[in-house]
Each structure stands twice: as C-alpha cells, then as structure tokens.
C-alpha cells in the first residue's frame, strides 16, 4: 500500500470510529435518557435521530474500511465483495453488526413512547456495552472474564453520561416546567453511571498497560495520556455543574440555568475530543499485556 493510500484509508477509518462512538454514546444514550429520565423535546429528538441515522450509514461503511486496511487496498476497492467479507470477518465486523442493531433499536425508541420506548432504549443501551466488549483492545485483552465486563460497564456509563447532555441542554433552554424535575432525576442517577465508568476504566488501563512505564513507552500508553487531558477537564466541568450550579438551577435561578446550559455545551465539546483521541487506539499496536495473554 502506498503512503497516500495508507493515509487516506487511515483517516477514513478514524472518522468511521468517531461516527460509531457518536452514534452509540450520544445517539443511543440520548434515546435511553429521554425515555427513562425525561427531557423529550423536538430538539433532543431530532438531534438523536440525525446522530443515529448518520451513524447507521457510517457503521457499515467503516467495516468496508477495515477490509481495505486488512487487504492493503485503497478506497477504490470498496466495490469488491472480498473487501466487505474481510471486514466482517474481523472482530470489528461483529462490533459494527451489534452496534448497528443497537442504533436501529434506538432509532425506533426515539420515535416511540411508553413501554415500547423504554424497552427498546434499554435494549439499545445494553447493546452498546455488548458491541464494544466484543472486540477492540479492551475486549480482546486477558483475563477476558475481567476485561469484557469492564468494557461493558465502561461503555454503558459513557453512553448514559454522553447521551444525557443534548437532552439536558434542550430542556434547560426551553425553561419549561419539566426542566427542574429532569435535572433532579439526572443528578440522582448520574453517580450510578459515573462510578462504574471510572472503576472499569481504571481496571482496563491497568490490565492493558501492565506497568507504569508503558504510559510513555508504548503507543497505547501515549494515546491514553493524551486522552486523560480532556477526560480530566470533563470531570472538572462536571464537578462545577454538579456542585456549583445544579442546586441553584433547581431553585429556578435563571442565571444558574443559563450558565449550566453553557457548561454542558462545554462537556459536549470535550466528549467529542475524547472520542477523537480514543479512535486513535485503532492504530496502536496491541498492548504488551494483551499480546502476551497475561
């Protein structure tokens, strides 16, 4: 594969990964949020529909990109059956298939209400965890009895948190009677998503790295260090929202509501940066702990 073809396919794979993350975490997570927590609005529903719809197209295309990468072919090879067969034969093919099913369920859940919307959105959220635990560095690392459940919990936690952001911004912007109740319900539930997310993330990092020197001595560790910058910033902004603005917003303080809406917008931007960095893991060699099966 020539250098130009390599970079073209690599960029396409990277974009496809980001699109998949956006669809799974923001789209599916958003469908779950509006069905279980509240905040269903025209803006939130349309946003989730567009995100999921775009990702439903991008996910299968990303499988073709995987096939091109495996075969050392350029984008012109997308029309060949062998490329798609090769892409779906990889662990990513299974991930994309489960992710597509989850996003399809989320799409119907967004358009539904009541029990059907709840059941489909819950199934879609669980599908996010299953999809990401089925492949990738985390899902393939040993011991899998530990890493696969950790990836599952980590993915579900991200989906709930990231998926809540757009509906929260929308309901706060509307300043309707539902805004405060939705914010209160979210404040009660979010610790139960964030704590497993943090614990699972720490477990995965320890297993993957194998030692502290791998942070700067391996490509995986270097990507992790870069990712930690927006992650730490995200937690700081979230802490500001939770402990500095939420209580005042719940008392219907208009200034606090405006500031909260803006800082949640900052959270959205940081989440997208995290997705972009995490997508770079596809191009890193398998971590030592994974490679040696320990």
Automatic annotation (TrEMBL):
It comes from the Bacteria. Keywords: Cell membrane, Membrane, Transmembrane, Transmembrane helix. PANTHER family: INNER MEMBRANE PROTEIN YEBZ (PTHR34820). It is a multi-pass membrane protein. InterPro entries: CopC/D, Cu-R_CopD_dom. This is Copper resistance D family protein. Residues 182-281 form the Copper resistance protein D domain. Coiled coil: none annotated. The lineage of its organism: Bacteria, Pseudomonadati, Pseudomonadota, Alphaproteobacteria, Hyphomicrobiales. It comes from Kaistia terrae. The chain crosses the membrane at residues 12-36, 48-68, 88-112, 119-139, 151-174, 186-207, 219-243, 264-284. Its main location: membrane. It is found in: Cell membrane.
